[in-house]
């Protein structure tokens, strides 16, 4: 019989649990015949080391292959080893102690942690083995011989109070540090055994987990009493024990008297309203707890808010607690407000979990009450406060818990004239983890700085002062896909509006949480001191009431519709017949379509084609700037691709010139170009790779020169420009109506011919500013339209496009690189020329705006509430 081929293995589930007998084949003590026992009697009794197998002198430990072989050998020679050890007065091994009791009880020789496949020798982890009371005494005999166990995990082993007490009674307390009895049934017997262990002079037990152990009130009271004077235990779990109001007083006495317990888990119990009040009275006096889990205890919905008030008072007076879980207690909005008020002056609790209540916790640790919070959805996202994950977690939503999410302290600085412009008044930082709400910086030695706790990863932010946003030159910049449009109240009861497309960004590395806590304190915003005086007040600028309010931005949705339309009407589907490959090409083009549309606008405007298509010469010049031509790819190749992309139209495309590339043909040309230059020459394996290489190495750098989005957001869509356009609206609107009615098109729109006529009549033409520049201003001012071949909206200006076209004319006409001017000033310069073409009956009564007029659009004089920020010294 080959015993080494069928070794007992550690099993982790009930399904796979089998006996040692099933592993090794049929084994029983009858295998050892009398002849076998008497075969070598003299050698067996010889007092040499070689003959002392089964004693502690030759014990090979509980881990690994040798341990398994020793276990099997011990079982096989159990009667001989037992008798030999008795005669020679040798110490039994854990195997003999365990197997001897197994044999006496006629049980199957399950190893149950006595031998293990791997792991440290100091840890016995048999969670989920379903040992039961049947094996408990045998296991205790083996355990009694083991002297160096530091961790004993008996979780979920079907033990009752009888079985658990037998094991605990044989434990050696000298090195034991962690005992886990969760999900067994224990009672007073086990508590009495624990008392002996915990109060032993050599006790080192720091962790005791009794989750879901069905503790009776009397057993829990005994446990609390024995732990009152304990100076070693650090972590205690009593979760899921249906602890009711009757056990609140023993718990209260425990946390008042015990000054070493740091982790207490009471989640999923039934403390109730009155019990919770008792417990919270004790919590307010506790001087050691750092982590407390009270989730799922039904503490909320008290008619007189007594529970919330007691909790608020406890949190207000607590000086040691750092981490609290109050999730899923069904606190209503008012109760959350009371708890939040109690927490305001506590700057030591760095993480508070409030999911499943009518509130949320913000990034600074404030509790924000809300009218209703969906508890069902939050229940699926609940994270245990005192649990240790065995797997990597992927957070679905941020908890704003500095401890669980390992937030990091970071300094943010604004250095005037280095970071950016100098500013009067306070400078704020707007962090994305705050939903871009402003936090005031503190000035010291001319530097405005703030130290904040932020989650690790990419943090987007910007600064603001005087209701104007600022990006620092000392941090990296990120262009947002969609501009930020936010509104915030200021301490002086005004509204602060933000419209930006670029922000600063910084990457924060993850760091382990320091148990001592960070310098930054939660809920520690500076106080605001207020007074009233007469000042010149800035009028908040509102984009939604500005001249630009009707402008439609190139959002992802608009660009997505453009690429879908262009792709459908193009011949790309005939070029690429495979559906999956065609989708890859569409996705690749879509990722660059913002640049493609911007480049198309500029190139089509300079081609001299009134329907705004790209001419062949213009295209060649563009490709030349992109360094695309080489010895193996010339203009002749481009001409062939041009002809293929610009094939005769038979689709009724009224606004496709035919002698130039429209937008969808421009995209189709790029695909053909990629195939011809890279795919056919086998420089790449797929058409997608060819297109990506063409875009990234050649076309994208060239197209970025035509990206006008930053001009629009940084120079045009701003308050000062809006004020000038509003001040001159009485003449701008009549001029627009006049030229809209002068041609054959719609009476409320201006086409290219009419815009040229306006510029000519106003005397804006010159040798350096001719029709080419006028066409470019017209084209760049037009909003992107989805359909530019069947619909002519991209060829006819509405008013919001007309004023942008005028602004672009002014920007080019008065450009002076050596002494640049703001766009608002350039618009003021061009207005006399515009007034010349305005109808006389309008100009006769028009009062020319003065500096005071523009000032009054921006400011007003009134009695206002003044304020200043008073920073805490904490």
UniProtKB/TrEMBL annotation:
Q: Which domain of life is it from?
A: Eukaryota
Q: Which SMART domains match?
A: LRR_RI
List, alphabetically, the Gene3D superfamilies matched.
Answer: Ribonuclease Inhibitor (3.80.10.10)
Q: Which sequence ranges are marked TM in the entry?
A: none
One Pfam family linked to the record? LRR_6
Name of protein: Uncharacterized protein
């Amino acid at each position: 019989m080959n015993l080494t081929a069928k070794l007992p293995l550690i099993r982790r589930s009930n399904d796979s649990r089998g006996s040692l007998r099933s592993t090794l084949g049929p084994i029983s003590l009858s295998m050892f015949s009398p002849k076998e026992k008497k075969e070598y009697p003299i050698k067996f009794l010889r007092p040499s080391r070689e003959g002392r197998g089964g004693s502690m002198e030759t014990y090979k430990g509980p881990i690994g292959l040798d341990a398994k072989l020793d276990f099997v050998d011990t079982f096989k020679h159990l009667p001989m080893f037992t008798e030999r050890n008795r005669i020679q007065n040798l110490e039994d091994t854990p195997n003999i102690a365990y197997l001897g009791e197994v044999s006496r009880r006629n049980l199957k020789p399950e190893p149950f942690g006595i031998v293990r496949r791997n792991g440290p020798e100091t840890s016995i982890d048999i969670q989920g083995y379903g040992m039961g009371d049947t094996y408990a005494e045998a296991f205790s005999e083996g355990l009694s011989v083991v002297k160096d166990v530091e961790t004993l995990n008996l979780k979920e082993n079907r033990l009752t109070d009888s079985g658990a007490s037998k094991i605990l009674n044989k434990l050696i307390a000298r090195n034991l540090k962690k005992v886990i009895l969760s999900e067994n049934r224990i009672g007073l017997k086990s508590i009495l055994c624990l008392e002996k262990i915990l109060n032993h002079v050599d006790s080192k037990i720091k962790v005791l987990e009794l989750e879901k152990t069905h503790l009776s009130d009397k057993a829990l009271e005994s446990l609390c009493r024995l732990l009152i004077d304990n100076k070693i235990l650090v972590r205690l779990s009593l979760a899921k024990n249906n602890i009711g109001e009757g056990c609140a007083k023993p718990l209260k006495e425990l946390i008042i008297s015990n000054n070493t317990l740091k982790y207490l888990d009471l989640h999923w119990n039934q403390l109730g309203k009155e019990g919770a009040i008792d417990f919270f009275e004790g919590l307010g006096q506790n001087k050691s707890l750092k982590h407390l889990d009270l989730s799922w205890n039904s503490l909320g919905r008290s008619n007189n808010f007594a529970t919330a008030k007691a909790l608020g008072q406890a949190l207000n007076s607590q000086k040691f607690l750092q981490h609290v879980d109050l999730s899923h207690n069904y606190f209503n909005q008012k109760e959350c407000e009371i708890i939040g008020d109690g927490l305001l002056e506590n700057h030591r609790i760095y993480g508070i979990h409030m999911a499943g209540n009518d509130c949320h916790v913000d990034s600074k640790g404030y509790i924000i009450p809300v009218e209703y919070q969906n508890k069902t959805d939050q229940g699926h996202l609940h994270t245990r406060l005192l649990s240790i994950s065995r797997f990597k977690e992927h957070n679905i939503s941020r908890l704003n818990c500095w401890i669980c999410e390992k937030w990091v302290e970071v300094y943010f600085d604004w250095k005037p004239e280095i970071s950016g412009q100098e500013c009067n008044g306070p400078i704020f930082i707007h962090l994305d983890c705050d939903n871009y709400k402003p936090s005031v910086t503190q000035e010291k030695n001319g530097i405005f700085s703030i130290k904040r706790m932020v989650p690790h990863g990419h943090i987007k932010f910007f600064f603001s002062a005087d209701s104007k946003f600022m990006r620092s030159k000392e941090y990296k910049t990120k262009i947002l896909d969609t501009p930020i449009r936010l509104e915030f109240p200021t301490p002086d009861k005004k509204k602060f509006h933000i419209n930006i497309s670029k922000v600063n960004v910084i990457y924060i590395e993850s760091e382990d949480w320091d148990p001592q806590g960070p310098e930054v304190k939660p809920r520690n915003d500076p106080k605001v001191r207020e007074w009233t005086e007469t000042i010149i007040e800035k009028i908040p600028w509102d984009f939604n009431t500005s001249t630009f309010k009707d402008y439609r931005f190139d959002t992802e949705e608009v660009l997505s519709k453009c690429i879908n339309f262009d792709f459908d009407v193009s011949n790309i589907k005939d070029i690429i017949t495979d559906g999956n490959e065609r989708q890859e090409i569409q996705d690749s083009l879509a990722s660059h379509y913002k640049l493609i549309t911007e480049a198309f606008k500029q190139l089509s405007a300079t081609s001299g084609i009134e329907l705004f298509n790209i001419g062949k010469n213009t295209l060649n010049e563009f490709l030349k700037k992109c360094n695309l031509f080489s010895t193996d790819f010339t203009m002749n190749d481009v001409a062939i691709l041009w002809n293929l992309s610009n094939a005769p139209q038979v689709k009724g495309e009224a606004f496709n010139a035919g002698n130039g590339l429209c937008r969808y043909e421009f995209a189709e040309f790029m695909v053909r170009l990629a195939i011809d230059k890279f795919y056919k020459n086998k420089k790449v394996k797929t058409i997608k790779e060819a297109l990506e290489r063409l875009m990234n190495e050649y076309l994208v750098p060239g197209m970025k020169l035509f990206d006008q989005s930053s001009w629009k957001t940084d120079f045009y869509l701003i308050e000062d420009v809006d004020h000038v356009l509003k001040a001159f609206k009485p003449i701008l609107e009549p001029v627009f109506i006049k030229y809209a009615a002068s041609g054959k098109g719609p009476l409320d729109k201006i086409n290219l011919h009419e815009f040229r006529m306006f510029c000519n009549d106003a005397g804006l033409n010159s040798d350096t500013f001719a029709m080419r520049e006028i066409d470019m201003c017209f084209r760049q001012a037009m909003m992107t339209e989805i359909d530019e071949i069947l619909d002519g909206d991209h060829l006819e200006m509405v008013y919001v496009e007309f004023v942008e076209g005028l602004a672009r004319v002014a920007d080019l006409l008065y450009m002076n690189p050596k002494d640049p001017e703001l766009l608002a000033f350039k618009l003021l310069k061009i207005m006399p020329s515009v007034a010349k073409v305005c109808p006389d009956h309008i100009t006769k009564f028009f009062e020319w705006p003065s500096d005071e007029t523009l000032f009054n659009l921006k400011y007003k004089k009134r009695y206002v509430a003044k304020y200043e920020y008073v920073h805490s010294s904490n």
